[in-house]
Predict the structure.
Amino acid sequence: MTAPGWALEVARDDPTATTLLDVDVPDPADGEAVLRVERVGVTANNVTYAVLGDTLHYWDFFPAAGAGAGRVPLWGFAEVTASRADGVGAGQRLYGYLPPASHLLVRPERAGASGFRDGSPHRAALPAVYNSYASADPGADAGQEDLQVLFRPLFLTSFLLADQLAGQDADVVVLSSASSKTAYGTAFLLSGGDVEVVGLTSPGNVGFTRSLGCYDRVLPYDAVTELAAEPTAYVDVAGSTPLRQELHRHLGADLVLDLVVGVTHRDTSPPGPLDGPRPTVFFAPDRMAARTADWGRAGFEERSGAAWRRFAPAVAAWVDVRVSSVPQALRDVWLEVLGGGGDPRAGHVVRL
Ligand SMILES: NC(=O)c1ccc[n+]([C@@H]2O[C@H](COP(=O)([O-])OP(=O)(O)OC[C@H]3O[C@@H](n4cnc5c(N)ncnc54)[C@H](OP(=O)(O)O)[C@@H]3O)[C@@H](O)[C@H]2O)c1
């Protein structure tokens, strides 16, 4: 069967260069199923997938048709439109890692009531968390699903970060890009505990970040010297070298941990010498695998689910979900988020 489908590709070396392609809708062979991409979110996290696409193999999930092109992975909901895989039927809805495209061909393995994993050979070596497709909750309404589209992977990261930070010997946790969803989810989980939670953000985002109420203090990036000399853990979501250097210079031996989480500022300046501890990379899939081994899958889901149920009502008031539709809108939203400088309250969801 050949029918009109589409895919949005970007130049790997310049993700502002986009191409919207007409493609055939795949036909499932034995053991395969076709998902129609229904609803996806776009945040700085997806920009990071493009920025680190070569280093962390994000381009490998959804191979592109064009030379030097890539399909940026997105999180969202999809519906099975055709299946020749056991345990997977047309009409089933799933949440997972999706291409910026009308359809995705998968090879379901371990299919059951809770979903399946894609066993396609080109995904076998990639982190397991990106290959699993969870059955959608039939009781969830569109508003709840929009929040999941935007926050599920980010809040899972926040949950894992807060868990790791709880084991640190620090009196203060400082987060950069404090206005980002990943950072403020972490602050929410740490707030009310026995560490002071400080957010660093752009001058224009100080008001928004303070309004959330989950940080004890919010400072603009140029006020790092206002931090007190106390044992401090730095959670770096911005990925800015000058900011890191200033924090190290100012806090010196009081900086007990420097955790590299994100690269929202897309700073490419060389790292240079540092006065404090060596930065450690935090990669949520690795930490999730470790905690799943410690607690078991059910224990992990129980803990992270309880955290989400606390966070969801709060965050619903912090984000303006901006819904658009059609593939052209996905391109516009991609370019807007890629450009940065947007309203931190915005949560971009594209229903297709
Ligand atoms: N390590 C992991 O396993 C892991 C897991 C999940 C997410 N992350 C990373 O966490 C980061 C945050 O992701 P998110 O989806 O939560 O972000 P988000 O909510 O979309 O963050 C938006 C904020 O990021 C900053 N920003 C975005 N684009 C920018 C630009 N072009 N120039 C300067 N600042 C910009 C601004 O914050 P400020 O003004 O406050 O700087 C902005 O308010 C991403 O780099 C993501 O990949 C890492």
Q: What stands out?
A: Residues 4-139+319-351 form a domain with the Quinone Oxidoreductase; Chain A, domain 1 fold (CATH 3.90.180.10). The CA atoms of residues 237 and 313 lie 24 Å apart. The first helix runs from residue 44 to 51. The two ends are 21 Å apart (CA to CA).
